[in-house]
Each structure stands twice: as structure tokens, then as C-alpha cells.
Design a protein that fits this description.
Number of helices: 17
Strand content: 15-25%
Structural class: alpha+beta
Shape: elongated
Low-confidence stretches: 11-16
Mean pLDDT: 78
Oligomer: single chain
Helix content: 40-55%
Strand order of the largest sheet: 2-3-7-4-6-5
Amino acid sequence: MVNNKVHAAIVLHGSTGMTQSGKVRLLILMRVPYELLIGWRYTRAGRSTRRNGFISFISGVSMLGIALGVAALIIVLSVMNGFQKEVRDRMLGVVSHVEVYAAGGQALPDLALTLQQARSHPQVVGAAPFIAAQALLARGEDMKGVMVRGIDPALEHEVTDLAGGAQAAVLERLVPGEFGVVLGSELARALGVRTGDRVTLVAPSGQVTPAGVVPRLKQMTVVGTFDSGHYEYDSAMVFAHWEDTARIFRLEGPTGVRLKLRDLHQARTVADELSRTLSGDMAIRDWTRQNRTWFAAVQVEKRMMFIILTLIVAVAAFNLVSTLVMTVTDKRADIAILRTIGASPGSIMGIFVVQGAMVGVIGTLAGLALGLGVAFNIDVIVPALEQLLGASFLPKDIYLISRMPSDPQSSDIVPIAVISLVMAFVATLYPSWRASRVNPAEALRYE
């Protein structure tokens, strides 16, 4: 009943001198809680006096700070997601989703059975045998440690993107018995070799002779190079046919099977399921475990950037405290009048919570619009800035990725918006509580 009287008094006061349509509009507004109406009116109050203008300026700065903080968070995290996705996709061009290999590095006891059991899993869309070994690759006096991967060129396209497209023809040159190799582009550049050159592969386990242990050497012919876009693999990976690799390393056959899945994010689950269904003593690892350190480092960086940039939003949100404290001081007479006509302390507190929350909501929505606009169009904005400034942010001769990737994800955007709104709401509590404690008699004494 008290709230209805207050609402009616406000509406009737505002309807003085208005046209009939204006009065109808005000009567419709009576259905809206008056705390919301007054709070919104204070938020958009004009600069009728120098003091009101200053308060409005501080409120605008707080709103702008929240918007810029939210936008910065969205843009930075989207770019970090984009870089992570780009590196992951290039990594998976060489690395398979899941690897199954025999314990101890020995040849698989039954390759056909392992392939059949692996392909029976509904998530598996491709399987190919392989041999993984480490060796030295020499060219004259230059020598490099390399990872040798023996593959079946006919099946490799089922498990990696590298074996598809233009580079598929390069891997098809690996013919059993000819001892050809395909080198990573960076490795070939470091050794100074081209297609057709001869290199020496040095196996780690040598032959025992009366003169001692003699390392096994094999002359190999470079039949091509590949470029995965990932420096770690381009500088140390060597492909050969698995039959030639088995002869060099004295193995009876492939040491493992590489699998490609329908959904790469299910790799860990599929690996756990295969560990229970495959026959024999098998070791299984997925791509997330193979590169655990790198992905963990990226997640730590994302968390640190999230915390650092959230402080910007926090500073802007808590600027609302000073804005609302000044507003409460300026509106002491209004508060006293509302109290005398029946407004409760809770209603007074609600008015200023609405005012601060409106600033937070508008700032957050503006930040979301700005951040998402930049994040979804960064492939257009960055080249335009590079052309305008005459500079390159990601030079091709330094960085593997020459364009700025972006991947906005709802798992980042939703927490950003929620945290911004919560901070703005928390910042309104103390000034609103002070407003509710204003004594009407003292406030009206000098009015």
C-alpha cells in the first residue's frame, strides 16, 4: 500500500501540465516499480548543473571503462583461442588423434587383428600402421637428430591431413626397397639437401663385431620434402616406407597403429575405451597427452591474461562507488522527500542499485558488441591497420602464422559478461546502503 502511494505521488507530480496522451503514458508506467523508474531517471539525468554534469561525466567514464575492459577480454581471449586452434590444426596435420603401439617398442604381434579391432570402434574413421624410431641423419659433416616414421603411403591419408592434397604425391614416392625418405622442409634446409640428394641414416643400436660396436649406416635418397607449418616437425621429422624402416631398425613389422577420429575432442575417451577392448599388451596415447606440456602452458597463459584484464573491468566497475556516493550526496533532498511520503529504506537502496546496475549493464552490452565485432572481423581489421601504418604485426620470416587468427568461444564470453555484471552490482551495494540510511529530518533541515 505504501509503495502504491509513493508511485501515485510520483506519477501525478510528473503529470502536471502534460497532455492527455502524456498522462496516459505515465499511468501505464505505474505498472513498473517506481524504484526502476527513478533509478533509470538518475542514470540518464541531464547536466542541469555543474555538479550534475560532473557526476554524469564520472558515470560515463565508468561505463566506458567497463565496455573497454569487456571488449579487451573478449578480443585477447579470442585471439589466443585462434592461435591455439591454428597450432593444434597444424600439429594434427602430422600427429594422429590416437596412437596404439606395442609395449617395449617391439613389432605388433598381430597387425591385422589390431587394425580390425581399432576400426570397429564407432569413433574411428581411419587407421594406418607405423614405425617410430630415433636416429641421426648426416649429410657431409652436418648431422641432425631426427624422428624416423615408417609409414604405409597407401593408408597414411586416412590418419593425417599431411598425406592429402598436393603433398600426397610426395609420400607416394616412398617405394619399399628403394630406401627413399621425405624430409621436413626445415630439416632439408638445415642439411642443405634437395630432392635426389643422398643422406646417411645412422641407427642408434649398432652391430657387435670383434672390433666393438659399429653403428648401422644406410644411404637414403631424398625423394621429397613436406611443410606442415609446425617447426617442431618440419625440423626433425623423416618419413620412410615402413618396410625399409623395419629393415634398418631390425624389426619384424610395424610397431603401432595410428588412428583418426570423427571428433578429435573425444580422443581421450576413445583411448580409454580402446585400452579395454584391444587384444594384447598395448600402450595407447592420444594427441592431448602427446602435447600435454604445450596445451597446459597455453591454458596457464589464458588464465593469467583473464585475471590481468579482469582487473581493468574491476577498476572501472568500482568507479561506480564514487559515482553513486556523489549521487547520493546530491540527491539527499530527493531521498528525504521519498522517505516522508512512505518509501522504505529498502526501496531507496533499490533505486541506487538500479542506477549502478544500469551503468554496468549498458557498459557490459557495449563491451560485448565491440569485442565480438572486432573478434569476428579481425581478419579484416588487422590487414587494414597494417596497410594504414605500413607495418606487419606478424612477419612471415619470423612467425609461422602470418595472419591474426580469432576464435570467439561462448565458454569465454559468458563468464566475462557475468563477472562484469556481478562486479557492477557489488559496487552499488555500499553507496545504496548509505542512501537508505539518510535521515529525512537532517536532509531537509537546510533545504
